[in-house]
Design goal:
Mean pLDDT: 84
Radius of gyration: 49 Å
Helix content: 55-70%
């Protein structure tokens, strides 16, 4: 059982190795079978031929001598009482025999009944059996070498075999995170790999369709959610413009207005991230942009001083950057009534800090004490390509894209 964690190339190489072993073993078995069968046929024909020949000779001349050599020996039992058949062969029935006794491996005995009597021929092939042993060792070595050669060739050929799979994997790996239609099936053949590529294309098409429905939903939600927020904002502005309202009511209305504005910014940020709208950078005056963004957050909070340290222009998406900075400033300041807001831009870094009037940075806003940047702020920064270079209580530093 091949482990599932093994690489595809190793699996192919193992399959080649197993095939090479099976073919080598089958070939060796076939050679042994053919050799044994050929030996049996050859011995049978030799002994039968000798029996027929000497049977005719003995019928014409009863005193004819039977062969007695190191290879072939003949024995006779006739009806006149002559019997020189050795005892170990005397009880054998007519036919071919190969005694299975120690020291007789390779001895073949043929027993034939002829007109001259019973003829027994013994042929000694023990030296040939030694050659068969050599053949067996040769075949065993061939099995080992054949298996090793098959494994080596499998390892080499598997690289080309799995190359289309690796190419398809790289193509899939290069796909963007956003759903995109693909045409991977056209880059591979019309085989199992082509079916896999077609399945990926079909899956991508379903993702594109689902994404289109999702974007349509976000568009509808954005439109429908902005309407009640705009109504609440308008109502708060109208109430603030009423003459003769007391200071406590004004403060409550301003808190309501700030909460609604924060809710609107959060909604814009969330929907902007979800809809994956591409951002368009534009050149903005750094000092004016930073000061205007901070003032939009702390409007109506006279106890907050704004300090801006920036010069020149910077390229950034104005609307999305303002959303991000307003969210960061609200998170840093929290509910602190007084403090100092610092916005500094130098090179590719943008620093945002808040120092509360009652202690070190971050202690004025209870939500910033932990130093953990809200997840929505992180996501919006990633959407803009801003890297969070440093963060902590009361201070955040972004590294802007070049």
């Amino acid at each position: 059982m091949i482990p599932k964690t093994m690489s595809l190339r190793r699996r192919v190489a193992i399959a080649y190795t197993a095939l090479g072993f099976a073919l080598s073993l089958l070939f060796s078995a076939a050679v042994v079978y053919v050799a044994e069968d050929y030996e049996a046929v050859l011995v049978r024909e030799i002994l039968r031929g000798q029996a027929e020949d000497y049977g005719l000779r003995l019928a014409r001349s009863p005193t004819a001598a039977l062969p007695r050599t190191h290879r072939l020996s003949g024995y006779l039992r006739d009806g006149r009482g002559h019997d020189d058949i050795p005892a170990e062969y005397a009880g054998l029935e007519p036919g071919l025999h190969e005694p299975r006794r120690e020291g007789m491996d390779g001895i073949h005995v043929g027993v034939f009944d002829t007109a001259a009597g019973r003829l027994v021929f013994v042929i000694d092939l023990r030296d040939i059996e030694e050659l068969e042993l050599h053949l067996a060792w040769f075949l065993a070595a061939m099995i080992v070498l054949g298996t090793a050669l098959a494994g080596w060739l499998g390892w080499l050929l598997s690289a080309g075999t799995i190359a289309p799979v690796a190419d398809l994997a790289e193509a899939v790996d290069a796909l963007p995170t956003e759903p995109r239609p693909t045409q991977l099936a056209g880059t591979v053949g019309q085989d199992e790999l082509g079916r896999l590529a077609s399945a990926i294309d079909a899956y991508q098409a379903r993702l594109v369709e689902a994404d289109a429905h999702e974007q349509a939903f976000f568009a509808d939600a954005s439109h429908e959610l902005r309407t009640p927020i705009a109504v609440v904002q308008g109502a708060a502005e109208v109430l603030l413009d009423e003459p003769g309202i007391d200071a406590a009511r004004v403060e409550r209305l301003r808190r309501l207005e700030r909460g609604v504005q924060e809710l609107a910014d959060l909604l814009d940020a969330m929907l902007g991230i979800a809809r994956r709208r591409p951002v368009q950078a534009e050149s903005v005056d750094a000092a004016a942009f930073l000061r205007g963004t901070a003032e939009s957050v702390f409007q109506g909070r006279p106890g907050v001083a704004i300090e801006v340290d920036a010069a020149g222009s910077v390229d950034m998406p104005r609307r999305e950057a303002a959303l991000l900075l307003r969210g960061v400033l609200r998170w840093l300041a929290g509910s602190a009534g007084e403090g100092i807001v610092l916005l500094r831009h130098a090179g590719d870094e943008l620093e945002v800090a808040f120092t509360g009037s009652d202690g070190p940075p971050g202690l004025g806003g209870k939500r910033s004490d932990s130093g953990e940047v809200p997840s929505l702020t992180r996501r919006l920064a990633q959407h803009l390509g801003w890297e969070l270079a440093a963060g902590g209580p009361g201070r955040i530093v972004f590294r802007l894209p070049s």
